[in-house]
Amino acid sequence: MFKKNLFKKTPLEMYAPVNGQIIPIEEVPDPVFNQKMMGEGIAIMPSNGGIHAPVEGTIIQVAPTMHAVGILAKDGTEILIHIGLETVALKGEGFTVRVKEGDKVSMGQLLIEVDWDYISTHASSTVTPIIITNSHDGSKQFTFTEEKEGIQGQTVIMTASGK
């Protein structure tokens, strides 16, 4: 009567958190990211706009230096958005955080306003990795978009499916 596939979990689609050029994680000029030490992911070279929630979930981390935010999606996927490279050294300059740990967020909600001019002048790069920090547990399979340009809230950049 019921088909087994009705009980399969729907894959989690993660949308571009910011407008910009999509690049494979392997091309991020930082070994922590390009060697996937923190997990699977993808990156965006931002063109404009703030950082928005790529999924519905809960904020589980806001870096004290405001350069990164962690989100726990409803399916248990942990997503880290790391704004720029070597931005921890900016000590919060260029970032205005609009959420706090424990906040429930909806997909597309503004998380952090970013002064891209300041970041591009004072950090090594504006490239923004989007990392699945619990991808090493092997419970999910990840697929990445073939798109080259991401539109915040519209372009699906990554999908997580149960194995």
UniProtKB/TrEMBL annotation:
Cellular component, GO annotation: cytoplasm
Record PROSITE patterns: PTS_EIIA_TYPE_1, PTS_EIIA_TYPE_1_HIS
Top-level taxon: Bacteria
Biological processes annotated in GO: phosphoenolpyruvate-dependent sugar phosphotransferase system
Single GO term (MF): kinase activity
Location relative to the cell: Cytoplasm
Domain PTS EIIA type-1: 30-134
Protein name: PTS glucose transporter subunit IIA
Lineage, uppermost ranks: Bacteria, Bacillati, Bacillota, Bacilli, Bacillales
